[in-house]
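Subject: Protein entry, chain in single-letter code together with its fold tokens

Category: Structural biology, sequence-to-fold work with a learned token vocabulary.

Notation: Tokens come from a learned vocabulary of local backbone shapes, not from coordinates.

Start of record: The labelled sequence and token lines come straight after this line.
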Amino acid sequence: MPAVSAVVDINSSPEFEALLAPRPPAIAALTRRLVSLIAAYPGLEARVMPGWGSVNFRHSRAGHVCGVFPSADGVALYFEHGRLLHDPDGLLEGKDLKRGRMLRLRPDAEVPVGPIGAFLAEAIALFA
């Protein structure tokens, strides 16, 4: 079982900094932006999962909602129950996955803030 750290404060979390340290600066910046965006959503709590290489977000009633996974060339936003989410623009990948879906983000592309907010709201509403 991966170790779980304290709640993420992106301005002062050593665990978050350690997660970003091996990543290129553009990936680290994109990860910070995405984590900040999701952490601002009401009711979500962020935790760094060093063993998984991610920042995971939980809701008190909906449980695990999503995770942010930085990699060498991008950042994946994985929705635990993404198969159930309405995705009219076809942004979510992973049709071969049993229940999750992911949004892959690249540093040179626009972050789809509106759709991410809609996915978060729907993901929480499914189980809250």
Remarks:
- Residues 25-39 form the longest helix (15 residues).
- The helical segments are 14-20, 25-39, 113-127.
